[in-house]
Structure formats: C-alpha cells, structure tokens
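Reviewers asked in the last cycle whether our approach scales beyond single polypeptides. To address this, we selected a multi-component target totalling 1276 residues and predicted its structure end to end. The input consisted of the following lines:
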Amino acid sequence: MRPLRLTVNGDTLETAAPAHWTLLEVLRYRLGLTGSKQGCDKGDCGACTVLVDGRPQLACLTLAALAEGHAITTIEGLMPLHVAAGGDGPDPVQGAFDRCGALQCGFCQPGMMLSARALLNRNPCPTRGEIREALSGNLCRCTGYTQIFEAVELAVAESLGVAPAPRAWEEQRMKPAEAQEQARRAAAALAAARERNDGGPGARS
Amino acid sequence: MKSFRFLNPASLDEAIALATAPDAGDARFLAGGQDLLTEMQEHLAEPDRVVNLKSVPGLDRIEAGGGRLRVGALATLVRLEREAAVRARWAALSEAAASVASPQIRSCATLGGNLCQRPRCAYYRIEEARCLKKGGTECFAYGGSNKYSAILGGGPSWIVHPSDLAPALVALDAEIVLRGAGGERRLPLEKFYVLPADGDVTKETVLAPGEVVTEVVVPEPPAGARSTYLKFRERESYDFALAAVAASLVLQDGVVRTARICLGGVAPVPWRAPQAEAALLGRRLDAALAKQAAAAALAGAAPLEQNAFKIPLTKTLVERALLALAR
Amino acid sequence: MKLEPRAVPLQDAPPKRKVKTTQVVNGIETEVEIEVEDVPAGQWPPRASLRVLNHDIPRVDGPVKVSGAARYTHDVRVPGMVWARLLLSPLPRARVAALDLEAARAVPGVVHVLVVEREETGWLGQPVAVVAAETLEAAGDGLRALAARFEPLPWVVDHAAAVREGAPAVGRGANVGRPETDGDEARARAALSASATRVRATYTVPVQHHASLETHGVVVDYRGGEDAVVYCSTQYAQGFAAEAAKELGLKAGNVRGVVEHMGGGFGSKFGLDAQGLYACRIAKELKRPVHLMLDRRAEFLMSGNRSGTSMTIEAGCDAQGSLTGLVAEAWKHGGLGRGSLSGLPYCYKAGAHFRDVRSVRMHLDASRAMRAPGHPQASFGMESILDELAYAAGLDLVEIRRRNAAHPAWVRQLDRVAREIGWDQHPHRTQPGKPDREECIGIGFGISNWGSGGSSDCEAEVRIEKDGSVVVACAAQDLGTGTRMYMAAIAAEEFGLPVAAVTARLGDSRLPTGVASGGSVTTPSVAPAVKDACTRARGAFAAHLAQVLGRSAEGFRFGPDGVRHDGMTERLAWSKACGTLPAEGLSARGKWQESLQTRGVRCTQAAQVAVDPGTGRVRVLHMVCLQEVGLALNRLAVKSQIQGGMIQALGYALGEGRQLDSALGLQLNASFEEYKIPHALEIPRMTTLIDDDDTRNGVAGVGEPPAIPGASAIANAVHNACGARVRELPITPDKVLLALGKVV
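The resulting structure, written as structure tokens, was:
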C-alpha cells in the first residue's frame, strides 16, 4: 500500500493503493468514480480514457503512482470543470453527444467524449478526418460512429457560433438545395475559423 | 498484475543501480508503460522491481541542431509526431510516430519503449502458449497460424518486430545510446537488434540486464534528402504493420545519390534492404526502377504457409514509397 | 367534486381471438399462433398529426449517460460485497489434473473457492472454478494460486477434424447433426439442369463475436433471508430474476432483477449463464453479495457467438435472369450448439429449391443468438451466388435482384438504393472491373427481411399524478436502443406533453410484464402496451373530468395546449386538470395489441468500395441503407441503430472472425487487439434512410434487418471492383491478393 495524492477533476483526493494498481483501478475501486469504464484492461478499447494534463490517456495502462502531480479529468469532471471555467451546464461535447443521439448503450461514451474534448482543446475546429483520427482509439459497437462524428462537429460549430452543417439525420427534412446551402455556409465558416486558428496558440500543440 | 516494488530514482546512475542490485530480482525499467503494463496485466512480465525512468530528469528532450537530432528515450510519440523540426527534416520519423496505435497510447508511449517493445505474435501474447520466445522449445507460428509472421530473417522464431519507429530510424541512419553499470555505449540502431538465429531467442535486442536506452541520435539529412514511412495495416487504426517501409533518399536531378531502405512488419528485426539500395544508386528514379528495387528488397523472402501475400504487398509499398519520394 | 376510483381495472375476461405472429425466443424467430383479447383495435394517430413521435428526439437518458453517472452492472457496489472471478479451461477438452484449493484459500482476502468442474472439461473457455474474495485483485490472485493443471484430451475445433472418421466425440451423439432439409431435390436438380446459366460455389463465414463493450456479469445482492436483488447486464431482467430465484432457492417474486443501463448485448445476454449461476451459489453460501463480471478474454471465450457456416450453393437462371432452381448444402459451426442458418434461398424466389443443412459440433462455446441469427450467413451465400450468376449470364446486378426479389417492397427499395449509390453512372453493371488502377471502385447490393412481432404478454402501466407528472412503466430493459425514450415519447404524444414531463421506468423485474429484448421484439411489444395504457388512462381521465366538469367523457381532447372539450371554448391546463385527481392520482394498465405493430420489415443496402490491387486493401466508401420500419417512433434513434447494424456487418465483411489454433486448442484473437471490429477510421459515408414509402402505421423493431445484408453487399462490391471473388469472410488483404493471383 502506498499513499496517493491525486488531482482529479480539480479536487485533491488522498487515498492509498498498492503500487501496482492502475489509475483505472484507483478511480473505480478506491475513489468510486465509475464513469471511466473497464472494457479490456489492456488498452484496446479506450473506454477508460481520461485526460492527464489535457492529453487523452488510458487509465488501464497508467500506474496510479505515475498520475500523481498531474491534473486528471474523468467524465465526472467534464461538466464541473466547464462550469468552473465560466461555462453554463454540461460541456458542449456532452450537450452535443446528447442532442445528436451519439450514443446507444453509452458504455464507450465517457472515453469517447474525453477523446473529443482533448481534440477540441488543442484544435478548436477540426476537420471530419481529424475527428475520426482523434477518436480512433475508442471502440463503439452500437452506433456506427456517424452520429458521434456529427456530435463533435456540432460542438465545434456551436463553440464557434456558426450554424452547423445539417446532420445526415436532418437532411430528409430539408430541401436538398437548402441543405447544400447550409452545409456550404458551415464549411466556409469553419474554414475561416481554421484560418484564424492556424499557428495561433493552442491550435496544434 | 503481480505486485512489485516501485522505485523512483533521481538519476540514471541510481536507476541502473536499483535495477542491478543483488536483491533486485527481476527488475524492469518503466517509461511510458504502454507495452510493459499490458505484459504485466497478462502475466507475461512479472517483475519484482519496477524502476520508474520518468523520475529521472532530462530523458525526454527533443533537440534538433548541430547537424543532428537528439531524442531522449522518454520523449513521447505524440511529441515526435508534432514537433515541427522533426516533421520538416526527419519526416519518416514523425510519420512513423503518427502511425502508432491510438492517440491515447501515443500520449504516453515513448521512443525508448517503442524501440524495446516485445513481439505482438498471438502465441507470444497468450500466457498458456509456452513458445520459443517465452523459453519454450517451439515457435508455434511456424507450423500454425503464421499470416502475421516473418518472411525475411525468420527462424528459429518467426516473430516480426512490431516497432514503427525502428525502421524509420534505421532508414535515417540513427545511432542508439545505451547506458549500463559499465558505462555508456553507442551503436548504429541497426546493430541494436538481433535475429533469433544470432543471439538469445527470448530477446530482440542486445540490451543487457540493467542497461537503459538513453537516447537516439539521428544525423541531419544532407541537402536534397527526403524520407518517408509507409505502413500498411489490416485495420486503418490501432493496428500493427502487416508490412511497412521506411525510405530515405537523396536525389539529384532525379538521380539517386544515396538510399537507405528499411522494412518493418516482415522480419524479426527492422530489415535493411541493401540490395534494393544498391539497385537505386546512380540511377534515375522512375516507376521501372522502383519496381526493380522493390523486387530486390524482397529477393530473399522465404514465406511460411499463410504469409506469401506479404511479398507482393511489401513490394507495392517499397515501390510507392520510392515514387512518393521522387515526386 | 366526485372522485374516480384510483385505478381503472382491465375489463373482465374479454373474448379472445387467435392471431398468427412471429415471436422470438432467445433471439430466434418462430412463427406462432397466439390468443389475444378481442377488444377494439387500437390505432396510432395518422403520421401527419404526430407531434413527438416519428421525429428526432434526444434520448431521455442522454444526460445521465453523457455525465458518466449512468450505473452499469459493472459499476454496482453494495455493502459487504465480495468479488468473484472465473478460472476457464485453457483447452477445448482436458482432464482437470490439479487444482490447489488450499493455496487459493490461503490467499489473503479469499473467502470462497467454488470448483464447478472437477473431472473433465469439454470446451475451450468452460468455467472450472470460481474464486471469491474481498477485493477483485485478491480473487485474481486466488485464481493463480489454484495453479491449475490440465492434461489435454483429444479435441476437435475445426470442421475437417470434427467430421473425420473416428473423431473424438463432442458430447453425446454424432458430431454431425441430422440433416434439416427443405424442398424437392429431384425437381431442383432437374430445374438446374434445364437452366440457361448455372453456377456453383462454396462460401464460408467465420464465427463472429458479439463484442459488447460491457462484458457479461451480475451483482447478486443476497445476504441471507427471503429476498434478493440481482443487478444484471441482461437483455431480459424478468427472466434473469426468475432464474436467479431458482438458484437462490427463493420465491420468484422475492428476487428483483435490475438493469438500469447495460452496455450492449446483441443477442448474447438472455440467460443467467454460468457466471450468474455461480454468483448465486456463492451468495447463497456466504450470505453476502457477489460481484462477478467477465473479463474481456472470458467474454470472447464463453459468452456465445454467431455460428460460422460453410455452404455450397448451385443456382441457375433462364435467359431473362429469373432463377429457376437452387440447391444448397450447408454446415453450421456452432461449437457445442446447433448454430443457425436462415433458409436458402434467402429473400428471393428461386424456382425449385432444395437444401440440406447440418450442424457440425466441436469442443467450443455454444453459439447464441446474434443480431438476426442465421440471416447474415444465408444472405452472404445468396447474394454472392446471385452476383456470380448475373456475371455468368451477363445481367445487370440490380436487374437480377428486381426480377427475383420475393416481395415487391424490395423492388421499390432497390430502385431507390441504386439511385443513392450512383448505379446508373457505374461502369461495371454486368461485368466486374479489372485490377488496373490503385483505386478500383465497386458496388454491391444485398436485401434482408425480419419478421418479428411483439410479445402478447407485454404490459405497461401509466400513472398520472395529482401534480401533473406522468410515469410510464414496463419491466423491459433498454439495451441502449432507446426503449426508455420512446416509452416517454408515446405518453408525451398521447397526453400532449413535452417528453421531459414524462418519466419512463424500466429495467426492473417488479414492473409490469416486459419482454426479452432480442430479435427486434422490444419495440413491437412495449410500444403497443404503453400506447394501450395511455389510451386507457386517457379514457379514465376523461371519465373523471366528465364527472368533475359535468361534460360528456367522449368530448375530451388532450393536446399541447391543454385539455379541451368539444363543447367548451376555454381550455384547461394539464396541471389544473390533474389537480382535480384524487391524492393517489390515476393509473391504467395496457396490454400489447396486434393492431399497433408491424410485422415483416425489409431492408435493402448497397455498398461502394475501393479496392487497392497492390495491397489488397478494401476501403468502404459509402453505404446506403433503406429500411422499412412501419411507424418510426424516434427517427434519430432508429437511424443510429441502423448504422450500428451496418457497421457490425462491415466488421463481419472485412475484419471479424474467430481464429483458432486447432493443434494447440487456443483462440488466437480473444482480445480487441486481434479481433478487429471497426474503429472510427473504417467508417464509410453512411446514407441511412427510413423507408417512408412503408406506410403501415404500426411499430417494428429494427435491431436485426440492417445488420444482415451489409457484409454481402461489401463482398459483392469487392468482386465488382476488380474481379477478386473472395468466398470466405472476412475479406482481409491477404485473401484479396490471393484472389487477384498476386501471390505466387
């Protein structure tokens, strides 16, 4: 047993665990933070993804002892941290996942949303390709991913204050010309935002 | 995971001393842990002592200048992937780093860990299968499932070396620096790896017990040099190479002046292809020459029952990598 | 103010009538005739008038899931709980030679060691022992302390070995099952002989794993006494609770099954299973709660799978492309189980047909239901032979399907899907392309059908409280498909309320009778029952208001603007109307009604792929799915479910499949590293279309049909792109290179 002092979601938590325990074990079996899911225990599924100093990391392949001194964000902390940073309600990623139906069983979602959050922190207006790449370490077996990509895009559009491109599931309700026009405007707005961000601080760490 | 003593040395010398102490038992150095922890989770590694290298300052630098690139063993892959100087001048290295596993793993995984990672062969990874690599008497892949196995340099073990960085760094003519109780030694990265027939079959490198990879030094490529890393996976993300090629060329008016080609995913070590390099030298790089070099690279291939497909696959990759550099 | 009685009872024993329907037992669909109450048939409102349903509705459990607060079985912690882990047979068949029970018991923290197989194991992954301890880790240490030794006994884990003369027997009886035949062989063969074009080929599909993100498992909260609660990751909370009660020796009604949220099942999570059984035994023994979740490796080895199949099909057609005959011989690979294979011909009229299907048993985990059991296998054989026949006869791939489809709906769907995928502009409509460029584009098609209807036992309850809140309840469970949400949405539609004003309760065996969620039966079971309960509650509420307000009960209307009466100009706000209820509110129970469901939902898909003949890489560029759903309750959720089905088919086509080493008796890919399900980068552009030309105004489940034809469409597209006909799934680069003759 060794004492552990972890900074989780902005709080300093003291506990103790054997030296060989992973961060995932400490979160789930010591701290009661069961939002980080245990899907494979060997880094294959991404369900235990947490942020360590803002970077996505697998809690199942991180010794808890090595997480000391770093800022850990779990799914439970996304909303509180957003609020603490002056936001209102859930993190925009959470809101967008909810509204886009980007989840079914929800077991992969905590990890998926943290990967998305890590992406948006360093690249506020990613392309679809960058979103897919950033989420490529998180398995989902229910949704077919498409609505997940759309949710991240919605979160991006909302944070930039531009109207999002119509999601695939909305197109049936829009006239094709109308949908095309909205997609064009959204793409232009995002391109402009990307332009502004290129080389800017935090654009690409 | 079996319990162990977790030690946080303040210096490299202390780390080495802790790992080589008479009472150390089975001691392992921990860097990013992305391979070691999976091995420990699955009881393939059960160290008595884990010596944390992250507590040693200065092992994670990435420094470009003075005619070379120095990368500390603890530099993470995500940094190698994004560092502007590496992207600009050692493209094969940043491309190789970007191709590894998943974003989460690249956040943690280190250069040293990537170079020293253990095989992914399914037989090796299944605890119950006591294969040659784990001290058994047989390479089960040879007569069993060998789709992913070696077609070059195989025998008596047919693993393929899983590292993406190693072929890239060999193509870039890198040198590796090791430190042990007896001091420091430097060797060309190519010489760091040993074929199963040439050494202890349970190991992939010349790393001695208690010895640590401290850094890799890559020479500044000459003017006109270009490099690339082309990796082919069964699945586009989170997968190891079925075959890969790293190539570094200097072209003058379309004519190849220097060439280094190293294959990944096809041999128990990063597999240098000197015949292919020779075929290129002094000649104008066009589609026909690329094809010829690709054939030369695979000339000695000896596939097993299920992996002859790697020959045409790897040839395609060599051709495409060369042509990409010629464009 | 005169008050109505608290609950409106169901009518006394109304007359019964018989109806035919399809029911699903553990995921397998079966035609049955059932008796239902002969009551006036309920109807859904006309689609155009729907305000909530048939729209995109964010899920009611979205917020709890995105916040990480949703509690899955794995997350359940109860006081005094012990943690249990399983020791599995590492070999397909072995003598249990040594188990050091004393050493395991001596591990600090270990509280119980249960040996469940002392003599001989008969399948790879069969549980042998269970160790329970104060911590999960101690349980794991206990397993290792058992130092189990197994002596191999002869086994069979592949088809060839199982059918060989003198092969080790798998259980009792022959390794090859009795033939299941259908059709007239002589007629079918004669038809084939007379056909203008005929082709014959053998197709093989591997064993596919469900690969739910949450593994199987249970928390049995029993501390002695008469009652227990079982938290379970299950597709059937009530069935699970009943089985657990039997094991615990308790009255069925005293065991409550709870599944608040569960991380996917896809047909693998119906029963108590080995882990549930052992958790109950240990809980009973220790009188302490037990937490037993499978780890990922155990999940692959012992939690069921989709059976593999090998099938040889011969088919012929006339000069116009009408099928004249089909003969199929097939073997199912379901491990200890019988496996499943849907009928061949599949979804097409084939003229005279004959089939002979047998199961081949092996020392491996028994197959279970998995998303449309038997259908993807049959579809792969059927759609493949159809393409091969079309090419042999020089026919258009869409035309041969239009001509032979067994139902006109597929003709309509094929036209639309062909348009969406760009068939008219595609250069290879009657002959495959050549491997003459780095990116060879191909298109393939597939169709499917699923006939399931709901369960006539399903019931639901609606309660309207005096404060205006509404609770809908049914014991069914939400696998993530959105059951909770449409329960709330139906009530919202019926009472003119926002969805957020309704609370849906499910996943609790004590609620009104639900249904086992498999075979797409949940929606056609639960939604009618909820709708019926709402109709009855409205009736009761109207009767109550009629007395309060002195108006006729028939005239009341419930809408977003409140409660109206045909004879009144003013409106009564919902909350005000509810305020007139007695303190205990009002409740009504509803039952399943046949008239509210739709049976037989058809699906057509197309896939466009790019094949790189230099590497054998197949990239799926675009998939189109047009799916009949009857009345879509929530279009957003339906599309998500359709896309999930398409992606499971994509995995089946290109990456998934159990790999074994027959000699060593090992599964080589019992992890997400080697068992390759699709990641974000493999996902194509997806055009997901709800077939609004299906105007049947009843509800259907669509878990199954969209998971069926995608693999067939992708395999056909690979062939269409470059001429590489890979007849064995998954279509990995090595097989493509081999089919192209690149491997020498």
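The interface with chain A takes residues 1-6, 30, 33-34, 37-38, 40-42, 50, 52, 54, 78, 82, 101-105, 107-108, 236-238 of chain B (CB under 8 Å). We regard this as preliminary and will revisit it once experimental data from Aim 1 are available.
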